[in-house]
Design brief:
Distance between the termini: 28 Å
Shape: globular
Strand content: 15-25%
Helix content: 10-25%
Low-confidence stretches: 1-28
Oligomer: single chain
Radius of gyration: 20 Å
Length: 336
């Protein structure tokens, strides 16, 4: 099976909070209690024109609550980006509210204010286990010929594994845990997103212009919504209606420059091993359109920031959730 793939690109946020780069003020703002107590009412109803210099506690809390509600914000990073606006609009669609992507009182009340019980904290402690430190690799080379020589394309650090497990940007994880070595036995603060959304999808919409994937139930109601990278200007996604052909979990990747694209100087067919840092991540949802699919990614922070080679790319966790809701024959419609 031949699969489309992404080109590896530099880190997205120029002002990202690398480990050790967060000053005392930033560390104080990102204490777990600051995030857990942050008021959603303090967030502007629309995205501000400028990106703040560091993650905002209230945005972290908002992203976690949206994730729990089945409206994925993609990577939880603490920034009020386009994927947050999409997740708000997705939540509104899931709850039959007017869809405008704004934090109005009705949205805030439905998300958290009307709940009869106290919601669990969005940031909680986690003790790093020996399992978290197993099967790490030193690095992931960019060249496919070098990747093909590896046994598996695993995580490069405990921090990377935890950031993906808890749907977090790795820079946010490090900012919440300044000075941590992420060693076995250490207690670190992590986001607590929701469990995987359950249900049976009858139809999937890949909305190219909006950069979203929506799953719909048998009765036509939306089940879940995800931010997505759907093709690019150079290599657009397919048009029309197709179907799910099957699902492959932890798939290897067969690179064929004559069928897919040209990566570096590689001109031969290569088989890359499986792993979360493989070109298609942890899951591939195969479509009846040859060489196209819905899949994960080794770079979750790039979702809907950079184009793909025609396929539909989600974060690994969103792709895994969607894969559990589909079966062969589910309709996939490309719109816009």
């Amino acid at each position: 099976m031949f699969m489309k793939n992404m080109v590896f690109l530099p880190a997205f946020l120029a002002a990202s909070l690398a480990s050790g780069a967060c000053g005392a003020a930033g560390a104080e703002e990102l204490r777990p209690e600051a995030v857990n107590k942050a008021s959603l009412a303090s967030i502007p109803s629309e995205r501000p024109p400028k990106t703040p210099p560091r993650p905002e506690p209230a945005i972290v809390r908002l992203q976690v609550l949206l994730d729990r509600a089945g409206a994925s914000p993609g990577v939880i990073d603490g920034y009020y980006g386009e994927n947050v606006t999409k997740a708000i609009a997705g939540f509104e669609a899931l709850h039959d509210l007017p869809v405008d992507g704004k934090l109005d009182p009705e949205f805030l009340g439905r998300l958290s204010g009307d709940k009869p019980v106290i919601e669990p904290p969005v940031i909680e402690p986690y003790v790093i286990s020996e399992e978290d430190a197993r099967d790490l690799v030193e690095r992931i080379p960019e060249d496919y010929s070098e990747q093909a020589e590896m046994k598996h394309l695993g995580y490069t650090s405990v921090a990377e594994r935890l950031s993906e497990r808890f749907h977090m940007d790795i820079d946010l994880l490090k900012a919440l845990n300044p000075g941590s070595a992420f060693a076995v036995g250490d207690t670190v603060s992590v986001a607590m997103p929701g469990g995987a959304k359950e249900g049976k999808a009858k139809r999937i919409e890949a909305r190219r212009r909006g950069g979203q994937v929506l799953a719909f139930a048998e009765d036509g109601s939306p089940l879940a919504v995800y931010p997505a990278t759907i093709g690019s200007d150079e290599t657009p996604s397919p048009s029309g209606t197709h179907k799910v052909k099957g699902v492959a979990r932890m798939p290897p990747y067969v690179y064929n420059p004559k069928v897919n694209f040209k990566q570096g100087d590689n001109s031969e067919i290569l088989t890359l091993p499986k792993g979360p840092n493989g070109p298609v991540g942890t899951v591939w949802i195969d479509l009846t359109k040859p060489t196209y699919g819905i899949h994960g990614t080794p770079e979750p922070s790039h979702i809907d920031k950079f184009g793909s080679h025609g396929c539909v790319r989600l974060t690994n966790w969103d792709a895994e959730e969607l894969a559990a809701m589909v079966k062969p024959g589910v309709i996939v419609e490309f719109t816009d």
